Amino acid sequence: MDWIEIKIRCSARTADVAAQMLEQLGALAVTYQDAADSPILEPRPGERRLWPSTEVTGLFAKDVDPNPIVSQLQLILGDSFPIKALTLPDQDWVRAWMDAFKPICCGRRLWICPSWQQVPDPDAVTVMLDPGLAFGTGTHPTTFLCLQWLDEMDLTGKTVLDYGCGSGILAAAALKLGAQSACGVDIDPQALTASRANAERNQVSDRLALFDGSKPQDLNFAPCDAGVANILAGPLAELEPKIAALLKPGAPLALSGILDSQAEETAAAYAEDFELLDIKVKEGWARLSLRRKG
Q1: Which of 230, 240, 242, 246 is nearest to 274 (CA)?
Q2: 112-171: per-residue pLDDT in tens?
Q3: What is the SS3 assignment for 200-235?
Q4: Are 230 and 287 in contact (CB under 8 A)?
Q5: Full-model pTM
Q6: Listing from the earlier edge strand, what are the strands of the sheet with 181-186?
């Protein structure tokens, strides 16, 4: 059957109030979407962030008359909150969701592929990854930039650090590209669970060691030959001493999760222990390539 959608455009501060009103007026489900194509940074575990301009959508059954609901919302909210109602045709939602995820080529040979798709290149190095609880599927520019960097590296026989491993996509890619082993670090238990599951799916779990970053005493493994960290500019700056201590002298490091405008500031935070090699930008996001001094 078809559905009725009622959409309210509001600020991040008033989004929850709009959602509560839609629920009180009979919405079967409420969702939040970006209303102005604004970048939103990955939240820390337990943190919740919304876009400065947020569209809150209430889903109603087909037989609901949207006009009285819209009138009541306009009466309460006034003219500063644009409201519209439209009909949403029914479809196979599972199939529509699956069709949205396609294989992604992240360099010369590396592909990220959901389990229900096939990579068109028979010679590809393929990481099988389905969207899940943790950040990192290859679709976001920061993840893509790190994957591309790994594809450019000679990782044969090396140990790779994945700090802020999220879904484990970068560690799994490094192992598929020839790394001997990888060390994944994250403070989010869901990320460690996802990393372990994705490593098993890609048959590299025996070469991936996972560590809880909230327990510094556990980060006592030997320094790695190369590293990637796809987090956020602020946490990356704070983590510089820890990341430096986990990399050998001369080890290459890729940093991302950084807006283009934050690249120089982040590079400065790493200047004491790292040499900046280059900065690459994609869709407003930056990747820093560095080398450990010493």
Answers
A1: 240
A2: 888 777 877 888 888 887 765 445 555 788 999 999 999 999 999 999 999 999 989 999
A3: HHCCCHHHEEEEECCCHHHCCCCCECEEEEECCHHH
A4: no
A5: 0.72
A6: 208-212, 181-186, 159-163, 226-230, 252-259, 285-292, 274-282
Furthest CA-CA distance within the chain? 70
Asked if residue 163 lies in contact with residue 183, where contact means CB atoms within 8 angstroms, the answer is no
- The correct answer on CATH 3.40.50.150 for the domain covering 131-292 is yes
The domain 3-90 is placed in CATH, from the list 3.30.70.120, 1.10.10.10, 1.10.10.650, 3.20.20.140, at 3.30.70.120
Residues 6+ apart with CB under 8 A from 124: 105, 109, 110, 111
Our measurement of the distance from residue 281's CA atom to the centroid of its chain's CA atoms, rounded to an integer in Å, reads: 17
**Residue range(s) occupied by CATH 3.40.50.150 in the chain:** 131-292
Parallel, antiparallel, or unpaired for β 83-88 and 252-259?
unpaired
